[in-house]
Amino acid sequence: MTDSLATYPVHVGAALEPSASRGLWLVKWLLLIPHIVVLFFLWVAFSIVSVIAFFAILITARYPRPLFEFNVGVLRWTWRVNYYGYATLGTDRYPPFTLAEVAGYPAHLDVPYPERLSRGLVLVKWWLLVLPHFVVLSILVGGGLWAGSRVTSDGWNAGAGGGGLLALLVLIAAIVLLFTGRYPKELYDFVLGINRWALRVAAYTGLMTDRYPPFRLDQGGADPDTADESIVD
Prior knowledge:
Layout: E1 11-14, H1 28-31, H2 33-60, H3 65-84, E2 107-110, H4 125-129, H5 131-140, H6 144-149, H7 157-160, H8 165-180, H9 185-205
Antiparallel strand pairs: 1-2
């Protein structure tokens, strides 16, 4: 890719395992309770950190690096939980309890630290400029415009069960897994594209980048915006 959007600075990758448990997804809701509790508090902290970062960027044009790394960690944790859980059902490997990158886990997220950010954009990008994306996510993730905006407050677990396209696709994947123990590749690629779109928007509304998220459904586990070939479908 040669256009500027081909290097979008929110890298989301995953690896599809060749086989999966037929029935584990039936009890993942129970297994995920500890993560849901932790993520609730992490997203409260994410919101507070974003407010602090807002004023820091407005005054200094910089996102304090420790705060930036914390919020990236929250997104990373959320993505691992959503990949294991009902936003993807992409792995049977239980998500680790850490904000850090885990090399062996099949879901990865990285956002390069921006040296400078626009003081002007910080005033409007998180609520006004992102509105078109919220409209799209309300269809892809479900639950109307409200669910689209929830991507910045507690991930999109609520939306995944809110009747959107993502919920339908994951339900189909779950049924196929139940009978075959395999995740249809085309379905997986599409589900990954929706999750990648949501995470890009989450990072943008979290003030982590000034680069506007592309209106592009980049499907598959390998992120087209990174040269990391260790992440494969």
